[in-house]
Amino acid sequence: MDMMTAAKAAELAGAELVRGPSDNEITEVVRDSRDAVDRCIFVALVGEKNDGHNFVEQAYENGCRV
């Protein structure tokens, strides 16, 4: 994946950047908060059984800053 900033990722997704500096560089995309690490972006998906937004804090605690 080419380097992308948090601000650019949010802009492209039509999303809101909730945590972290807008100039953070992203090296990985994760959708499971247990896989969150530094320099990754956590994508909170809404499914039939779970809402990823409920796991934003867990992703942050695991090192994710975007």
Task: Write up this protein.
This protein is α+β, with helices and mostly antiparallel strands. The chain is built from 2 helices and 4 strands; from the N terminus they run E-H-E-E-E-H. The chain has helices spanning 6-13, 56-61, and strands at 4-5, 25-26, 28-30, 40-42. The strands form 2 sheets. The chain has a two-stranded antiparallel ribbon. A two-stranded parallel sheet has the order 3-4. The longest helix is centred in the first third of the chain and has 8 residues, at 6-13. The radius of gyration is 11 Å and the shape is globular.
Protein topology:
Layout: E1 4-5, H1 6-13, E2 25-26, E3 28-30, E4 40-42, H2 56-61
Parallel strand pairs: 3-4
Antiparallel strand pairs: 1-2
Which tags fit this structure?
66 residues, alpha+beta, two-stranded antiparallel ribbon, two-stranded parallel ribbon
Quick overview:
With 66 residues, the protein is of the alpha+beta class. It has helices at residues 6-13, 56-61; strands at residues 4-5, 25-26, 28-30, 40-42. The two termini are 16 Å apart.
Report on the biggest sheet.
2 strands, antiparallel
Helix content: 10-25%
The largest sheet has its strands arranged as 1-2
The beta-strand count equals 4
Could you give the distance between the termini? Answer: 16 Å
What's the total helix number?
2
Percent strand? 15-25%
Overall average residue pLDDT: 88
Class derived from helix and strand content: alpha+beta
Instruction: Report low-confidence residues grouped into runs of 5 or more.
Output: none
